[in-house]
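DM from R.C. (forwarded with permission)

"hey, sorry to bug you on a friday — could you get me a structure for this? deadline for the figure draft is monday and I only need the backbone to look sensible"
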Amino acid sequence: MHLDHLGRRQWLRAAAGFAVAPAIIGRARAATLKLKLSSSQANDPKYANGRVYYDFLVKRLKSAGLGEQIEVAFFPDNQLGQEIDVINSVKLGVIDMMVSGSSISANIVPLVGTFDLGYLFSSFPQQTKAFDAGAAKPIEAALLKAANIRIISWAYNFGARSVLARKAVNTPDDLRGLKIRTLPNPVITECLRLMGAAATPLAFGEVYTALQAGVLDGLEHDPPTILASKFYEAAKFYSLTQHNFSPLATYFSDATYQRMEPKLREGFLAAASLAGADTRTHGLAVEKEALDVLGQKGVTVIACDKAAFRARVMPQTTNFLTAMPQARPVVELIQATTV
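My reply, with the result:
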């Protein structure tokens, strides 16, 4: 009886252990992967592309059943540093993700600057059609090879980039000598110089105070960003030069990519791509609305002589292709794409 009793107790302990073990294993497998997502823009859920993309990504992860397995922490307003520092941190794997225009990565992989050529794209739908045809593939491959950064989705900056200034700008002559902030990127800086401006590269986080202090006469950006960042408080004339339909990229560290479990990675990449498509749709919808709101806030929207600006900028593409012939297939595919 004593031996039978001991055997029964031991058996019960063993059975309890087997019951608990799967639960422990299950918890281990469900350990949350935590990712950091950076954006230079304001924490605005409607007009700031980084926050909009983040919200769509979280929704897509939840709908795919990955909401408890992947946690994305969002850091807007340059909280993790200026964009040039963040893109290098993504390269090193210190920061997992970044939402920004293609322009910032041209500082580390010059071929990406192809997308910054003035008047290269005619519209955002044309851009998407060209990318679907393969125009973005050489850029993506170069960024991965040279900088260990993957682009996991393409979207749009929320409207074409145009010029916001303290004075009315209708022609290239009106722009002459004005200190217009550009991205710290040689291609887009050259575009603004050809348009007539005194192009002034400056980090995004420093633009507002520079406008207030009179260090800048204006900047070039899309309408929702100007609204979300309140740049209209310091400059009241917005000229629709529409010199760049800038693609919006989600940069993803290859180091993070490599450490993800393959099945989880597959689901995450699918959600990231769908969030990019959601962000494109949202961006097209809010551009006109943002222009209307800027008008309500006292900004004069000017239908400037866009053809004159385009004519001034056209030599840029020829010069760029001479210096970087490997960009020619990308440019030719984009130019051949119509909608």
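R.C.: lifesaver. The chain has two domains: 30-109+122-157+247-286, 161-245+292-336.
me: no worries. The first strand starts at residue 33 and ends at 38.
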